[in-house]
Write a structure and sequence with these properties.
about 170 residues; about 45% helix; alpha/beta; about 10% strand; five-stranded parallel beta sheet; 7 helices; single chain; elongated
Length: about 170
């Protein structure tokens, strides 16, 4: 069964008529920074098809920052229990915000997880490139390690660094 995508207007209609349960699969710090009012927080790593929300009799819609993690969560849930009906909000909370719909903020100021990963990898590649140029060329081998990690993340849609950064205290 494939993931069913819905747009912001459809989600808004479903939420207004209380037809749907909305689940945010981002990390807690991202949810604090900006969230769709009424969304339940269930990070991607902890979402499970056995959760009671899948038996609520309502449509279940997942969302994240821009749609990628929610798509992964939908695929994971469908693989676990293919008979569930689940929807992905296309464009995630970014699409919700672009539509000028209300967004809650719980005081968090953390960057989204994908940007934290990009900043971390970019900084480390720059650092080890400079160390390789000025200190010892062996340091450039570490940049190859990060390149392999990026290739793996692109091919498998799994990023170890993202999982590590998600566990950091500022993301809790």
């Amino acid at each position: 069964m494939n993931t069913k995508n819905i747009d912001v207007a459809t989600l808004k209609k479903w939420l207004d008529s209380q037809e749907a349960v909305l689940i945010d699969v981002r990390e807690p710090a991202e949810h604090k920074t900006a969230n769709i009012p009424g969304a339940l927080l269930k990070p991607l790593a902890s979402i499970d098809s056995a959760d009671e929300m899948f038996n609520s009799g309502k449509k279940v819609v997942l969302h994240c920052q821009n749609g990628a993690r929610a798509t992964n969560a939908c695929q994971k849930l469908l693989a676990e229990a293919g008979e569930i009906e689940i929807y992905n909000l296309q464009g995630g909370i970014e699409a919700w915000q672009k539509a000028d719909l209300p967004v809650g903020k719980d005081g968090g100021k953390t960057l989204p997880l994908d940007r934290q990963v990009q900043l971390s990898i970019g900084t480390l590649i720059l650092l080890f490139s400079l160390l390789g140029f000025f200190i010892n060329p062996v340091f450039t081998l570490v940049t190859a390690f990060f390149g392999i990690g990026l290739i793996n993340a692109g091919l498998t849609n799994w990023c170890g660094l993202a999982r590590l950064i998600a566990k950091m205290p500022w993301n809790q």
